[in-house]
Design goal:
alpha+beta, two-stranded antiparallel sheet, 8 strands, 316 residues, elongated, five-stranded mixed beta barrel
């Protein structure tokens, strides 16, 4: 068959000769019956595909490194019911030849509507100094771009571009509802804390063709990175009472009740307890939703073992 235009893994069918831009997820030198061969794993945002070759092994091995984007030409086949690729040509992709969004999933909704929702919550804060602090987020085009691009997690929940904004909107909606049920809570403080609780994630991740924690994300954590950002924004608003700044930073420091980056302190204010509970609910529900979406069409009653949840998930 003639060469097809670049497409996604989910779209290709056996028998086609395709030219595609793919992320190189892994490469291995293996041996079968005394004969060496190379095994590559490629991926884009729609799926993964394996390639095995014993041709031009030195050239293909040095063509690219793990997590590079490659331009690859090959013939689509099958093995054990899964699509494979028989490589004919491969090289490292050049800057500008590909869109990083082709290799990572994105928030599937309307990002403009999502941002308007976040701005509306910020504008509902009636305390002028707190609203000024929030202006660093919602009144900045640069911050808008970074916030809408960031994921909320690597493996656990909202693990896609735009996931941070979706997760934040969900948390703030839960916080708003809780404040109506618990009128002793300072709604202004709780809403501000909900909007800013995960702000450190704009600096915690390195996003390329994968989502990984950067050095600061691992060494310092998104919690402390977020507290630093919020503390600096508070210092730029001199009319904000020191007590309010401390309470806002406390919400950021205390919002993770579980996980590999657990908070260094427990919630000690009603507002911090509400934000932490809302964060825990949306993170857990988001993780369950991801597993259900990924495995509900397998026909199985139960998911595979989920390390992050330490349990199986019932799929029916």
């Amino acid at each position: 068959m003639p060469d097809q235009a670049p497409r996604h893994v989910a779209d290709i069918v056996p028998g086609e000769t395709v030219t595609m831009f793919l992320a190189l997820r892994g490469k291995q030198l293996r041996e079968h019956e005394g004969k060496p061969f190379l095994r590559f794993e490629f991926a884009d945002r729609t799926g993964r595909i394996m390639a095995v070759t014993s041709d031009n092994m030195d050239g293909f091995w040095h063509a690219a490194d793990q997590n590079d984007v490659v331009k690859v030409r090959g013939v689509v086949g099958t093995w054990n019911g899964k699509k494979t690729l028989r490589i004919q040509q491969m090289r490292r992709a050049k800057p500008g030849e590909f869109d990083a969004g082709d290799f990572l999933p994105r928030y599937e909704g309307d990002t403009d509507a999502l941002w308007k929702e976040l701005v509306a919550y910020a504008e509902s804060v009636t305390d002028p100094p707190l609203r000024s602090v929030l202006g660093n987020l919602v009144d900045s085009e640069e911050m808008r771009g970074r916030f809408l691009q960031a994921p909320a997690g690597k493996l656990w929940h909202h693990t896609y571009l735009g996931g941070l904004a979706e997760h934040t909107a969900n948390v703030v909606a839960l916080v708003d509802s809780a404040c109506k049920r618990y009128p002793l809570a300072d709604r202004n403080l709780a809403i501000a804390g909900g909007l800013l609780h995960d702000i450190g994630k704009i600096e915690a991740f390195d996003v390329s063709t994968t989502i990984e924690y950067g050095d600061a994300g691992r060494l310092v954590s998104h919690i402390v990175l977020g507290e630093r950002i919020v503390a600096e924004w508070c210092r730029c608003v001199p009319e904000l009472p020191a007590g309010h700044a401390d309470k806002l930073c406390h919400i950021v420091l205390a919002h993770e009740l579980s996980g590999d980056q657990r908070s260094p302190i427990s919630p000690m204010t009603l507002e911090a307890a509400i934000v932490a509970a809302a964060n825990q609910l949306d993170a857990t529900a988001g993780a369950f939703a991801r597993i259900l979406t990924r495995e509900r069409d397998t026909g199985q009653a139960w998911s595979a073992w989920v390390n992050t949840l330490e349990r199986h998930v019932f799929l029916k």
